[in-house]
Amino acid sequence: MTTPRNLPLEGLKVVELGHYIAGPFATRLLADLGAEVIKVEPPEGDPIRGWGSRHNGHPVWFSIHGRNKLSVTLDLKKPEGRERLRKLCARADALVENFRPGYLERVGLGPAALHQANPRLIIARVSGYGQDGPYRDKPAFGAIGEAMGGLRHLTATPGVTEHAPPRCGVSISDDLAGMYAALAVASACWGVKGDPAAKGRVIDVDLVSSVFSLMEGMLPEYGLTGAIRQPAGSAILTAAPTNTYLCADGKWLCVAGNSDLIYHRLMTLIGREDLRDDPRMADNRGRCANARELDAAIGAWTRTLPAAEAQERLEAVDVPCSRLFDMRDCAEDPHFRARQTVMEVADPLVGETLLHPAAPFRFDGIAPREMVRWTGPAVGAHNDHVFRELLGEE
């Protein structure tokens, strides 16, 4: 149970009380940063253990989802389970929970009760709609956060009404809420640190607001003019040319030629000096007004080449671009491997060496692989260590 020297959250004690994605994603980030995270699971385990593929009877996804965490089991429906949770919170700096609002209060573990056990405890509450407001008690999962937060409206294909706007492929609203919760926990703990008179705080993070926070300037634009941004497909309405183009081998290439200098190099490469020198295209505003014409020219060029060759030629003249990577591309890419963004980690529970994604931050002197102290443990694997050694129970 060791932590690499100099991880920034070493010594921070966090209790995770929740399930599925948002709360556990927040604590995974905190654990990767060096915090001691005690994951409290029901006796049957976090339901997320039933998601995804299994190997040797164990969930592969949980190898990442539960990494660097201590797993204990508690039945919060029983007095002894609730009492043990109070003891865990009494020695903790923070609690992260993502039950529906009101659940902890109903079982006698709301903020008032937990602050009796530890007046300095930071309590982060992650939910679908937040701890108050008219929608507080409605159920929600990640897809609902995307829908109400404004993102799913924007993922539609322009002009296509017979197909539902697709999700982005991952539980983005859960992940966003988890990131915001982790940031808020670290910030609140910093506020308490060094002040013996400081009191604990309650943090309220919700899925809908987390997605809504990404809507750029759309809200003030609507407030001033009534304008509602519509789906733009793979283009960017405020910069051109930037789009995704089909290549000769059926693969797609994302090209971002938005600055004046890059645009000139791009048009020269594809043999469209006429568009390069066209006064209509002299600045980004003019190029946005004529984006369809530019996209047609670039698309005509990419369709003559395989995606890898088109990318190589664009990179040779310093035009930002990338093929659309699938997971094989990511796993085998030399840059991912060199930076240990993709790394090999032995998982004793699964019984294999697995590929893990690195934490998305780097610290001088600490290799990304060092930040994975252990993989997701079995349900209740650390009951004895936590209850006997840390809490001192007999």
Explain what this protein looks like in three dimensions:
The chain contains 18 helices and 13 strands. Helices cover 37% and strands 15% of the residues. The strands form 4 sheets. The chain has a 6-stranded parallel beta sheet, sandwiched between helices. The chain has 394 residues and is α/β, with parallel strands linked by helices. A hairpin with a 4-residue loop joins strand 12 (342-347) and strand 13. Helix 1 (22-32) crosses helix 8 (172-192). The longest helix has 21 residues, at 172-192. The two termini are 21 Å apart. The chain folds into 2 domains: 13-213 and 337-390, Rossmann fold (3-Layer(aba) Sandwich); 242-246 and 252-323, formyl-coa transferase, domain 3 (2-Layer Sandwich), CATH 3.30.1540. The protein has helices at 22-32, 61-65, 79-90, 103-106, 111-117, 142-149, 151-154, 172-192, 207-212, 218-225, 260-269, 273-276, 284-289, 291-302, 307-316, 327-332, 334-338, 383-390; strands at residues 13-17, 36-41, 54-55, 58-59, 69-73, 94-97, 122-127, 202-206, 242-246, 252-256, 321-323, 342-347, 352-357.
Short structural summary:
Helix 1 (22-32) packs across helix 8. The chain has 18 helices and 13 strands.
Give the key terms.
394 residues; 13 strands; 18 helices; three-stranded antiparallel beta sheet; 37% helix; alpha/beta; Rossmann fold; formyl-coa transferase, domain 3
CATH secondary-structure class of the largest domain = Alpha Beta
Low-confidence stretches: none
Strand content bin: 15-25%
Which descriptor suits the 3D outline? globular
Structural class by SSE content? alpha/beta
Q: Write down the CATH topology of the largest domain.
A: Rossmann fold
Q: What is the count of DSSP helices, taking H or I runs of 4+ residues?
A: 18
Number of strands: 13
Mean of pLDDT: 96
- Superfamily at the CATH H level of the largest domain? Crotonobetainyl-coa:carnitine coa-transferase, domain 1
What share of residues is helical? Answer: 25-40%
